Amino acid sequence: MMSVATEFPVPLSEYKVVALNPNQPKLTDEQKTQLAANIKVCRDAIIFFTAIADAKGLGGHTGGPYDTVPETVIMHGMMEHARNGGTPDVLPVFFDEAGHRVATQYLMAVLEGDMDVEKLFHYREYLSHLPGHPEKGFTPGVKFSSGRLGHMWPFVNGVAIANSDKVVFMLGSDGSQMEGNDAEAARLAVAQKLNVKLLVDDNDVTIAGHPSDYLPGFNVSETLEGHGLKVDIGDGEDLDGLYARMCAAVTTDGPVALINRRKMCPGVEGLEGSAHGHDVIKTAVAIDYLKANGREEAAEYLGSVTKGPGGPTYQGSDAKSVGKNRDLFGKIVNEILDEIPEADRIASVKVFDCDLEGSCGLNHVRASHPEVFVRGGIMERGNFSAAAGFGFEKGKQGIFATFSAFLEMVVSEITMARLNDSNVLAHFSHAGCDDMADNTCHFGLNNMFAANGLPDDGHDKTRLYFPADQHQFRACLKKIYGEEGLRFIFSTRSGVPDLLDDSGSRIFGDGYQFVPGKDEVIREGKAGYIVSFGETTYRALDAVIRLKEAGHDVGLVCKATLNVYDEEMMAKLAASPAVLVAESFNVNTGVGSKFGTELLKRGFKGNYNNIGTNKEGSGGLWQQMGYQGLDSDGIMESMKKLLG
Predict the structure, then answer these.
(1) Span 629-642, mean pLDDT?
(2) What is the dihedral of CA 143, 147, 150, 153, to 10 degrees?
């Protein structure tokens, strides 16, 4: 059935598909022995190839796929039974609503013979086609795309309707089940008697900790029972029990949810029961695990892996002073909160986290100001609306943070917050595509959707900000904190270097004051201007310096306020021979998609173009920008075309 190269140090040839008849709910000794061997080899392989990514500095999510191996190998056996003509028929797709469990999909693609095992050595690498979330059509053997939690079950319902004669499996998680989409999916599955079988990994662990601590009252099984599902609770590590329960679910008509309880990363010393299992296993921990499990060759290989290549160097910025703005957000908010008397602070501010905490800097607020911190769980829509509701009264504001990719999930809530004249300061990190091995589903591209108000005589106070370095970010955040209305501030997953002037001094130095709506000239230029913001700015600055060296007197404008036009700057640009907007947002919906029209309204007669993210992702980290033509070379090339 498969051909596995012997060079892979975890011998996948030990894996033998065991055809499992769901109508026979007791395993034979032979079946159980082989299933146990399959579980061991799969778990060891997942530890091994995800740890390679850690050694290369790529991240990679180990715990989720490691946890759900028992369910996966049993599913595989039932699919094999159906393939051989047995009943019931099972759709041969390992649907999974937790996209970070992508290692499962890659391993099964190898075991199914759709992908060469050698590919696993390149997990999450640039151009390896093994990104951090499954993408249909991008990776051989991967049969669906997923990523954002709570999106797969509604989709799988439709698959089940289209395949009404088949059993459809979906791997679930207690974290995914927090999302409102899953509540809607549960109701439809029950009402339509869909033959969907959920296998929920209930480990009481999310990125921010233990839901039983921070979300008391939430219970996966009781929630699903409340929607009318048949629910079966058991130990996910009890192989006999798990198999019998899965047989019962598959031979029962209609939707069934198996709640499989286990500690995260069972048996992995240093990770078991810990939220750290969500991310990639540390190489040292993996080496210890592999040695303890008799995988000396795999451990030795991990010890030889070196970190992946770093990015290029850039002129015009200080590589020795790099700010991680997504983390700084929480530190700067703390500085602001420190200045507010405690009683006023409690009365006027609430900070809503969506389980991402450290990814958006809110871990610092929870540590220093727990009195205003709300651990909201994986519920973006509800948490944004709660922040808006808190900020409904004058003098109060809600603070909210999550990934920029999830902004698309709260657009309707943004509209309602605007119509209610609410005060919300929203931090959306991981904007654009830079440093995003998780790939396309996690790109934060359509952030301009937040500016969905109407002109209406200036009544709409919604403002979008994307500062270019840590000093502009600090000045911006401190300035806009006390303003009214909806304020969105964006940051990247990657760090950004300090911008420098021609003399090597910081552009946004100690005396800098951020003025909302005002664009900043970074370099003057007579031949044309590049307009940029965020992490594209330092790349554009390098391009401008190189263009000037080549005899093209091109300037650079930093447009940190995205949805307001600085009329003084617009007049300057309208008189310029050429304007290029360079950004990492969606080329179709970003700042540049409208900027040319606005220039035309102001009499512009020069050459114009806008560049942005325009292709599905390529995997890798800093390489994503170059792949989109948004590195220095790409920006230079686009500007040269305008100059003629």
Answers:
(1) 98
(2) 0
Rounded Cα distance, 99 and 151, in Å: 10
> Reduced to 3 states, what is the DSSP secondary structure of residue 93?
coil
Q: What are the Cα distances from residue 584, in Å, to 88, 407, 470, 490?
A: 48, 15, 18, 12
Which of 218, 166, 161 minimizes the C-alpha distance to 192? 161
In angstroms, rounded to a whole number, what is the distance separating the alpha carbons of residues 27 and 242?
A: 11
Residue 575 main-chain phi, psi, to 5 deg = -90, 0
What is the residue-wise DSSP string for 403-416?
EGGGGGGGHHHHHH
Tokens of 607: 């050459």
Q: Residue 432 in 3-state DSSP? A: strand
State the Cα angle at 634 between 628 and 637, rounded to 5°: 140
Q: Residue by residue, what is the 3-state secondary structure of 167-212?
A: EEEEEEECCHHHCHHHHHHHHHHHHCCCCEEEEEEECCCECCECHH
In 3D, which of 193, 200, 199, 137 has the Cα closest to residue 160?
193
User: How far is CA 494 from each of CA 327, 429, 470, 582, rounded to the nearest angstrom?
Assistant: 10, 10, 12, 18
Q: Which residues of 558-567 are buried (b: 16+ CB within 10 A; e: fewer)?
A: bbbbbbbbbe
> What is the pTM for the complete model shown?
0.96
Q: CA-to-CA distance for 542 and 316, rounded, in angstroms? A: 6
Helix/strand/coil (H/E/C) assignment for every residue in 520-561? EEEECCCCEEEEECCCHHHHHHHHHHHHHHCCCCEEEEECCE
- List, for residues 286-316, the tens digit of each pLDDT value: 999 999 999 999 999 999 999 999 999 999 9
* 465 Rama sector, left if φ>0, alpha if ψ -120 to 50, beta otherwise: beta
Question: Measured between alpha carbons, how far is 331 from 66 in angstroms, rounded to an integer?
Answer: 34
The partner residues of 202 in beta bridges, in order of sequence, read 261
Q: Quote the CA–CA distance of 396 and 604 in Å, as a whole number.
A: 42
Distances from the Cα of 159 to the Cα of 53, 417, 583, angstroms: 33, 35, 37
CB–CB of 572/542 below 8 Å? no
Q: What six digits make up the tokens of 557?
A: 């404008």
251: three-class secondary structure by DSSP: coil
Can you tell me whether residue 424 is helix, strand or coil? strand
pLDDT at 626 over 80: yes
Q: Which of 127, 129, 108, 138 lies closest to 45, judged by CA?
A: 108
Non-local (6+) Cβ contacts of 199 within 8 A are 68, 71, 75, 169, 170, 171, 172, 246, 258, 260
In tens, the pLDDT along 91-128 reads 999 999 998 999 999 999 999 999 999 999 999 999 99
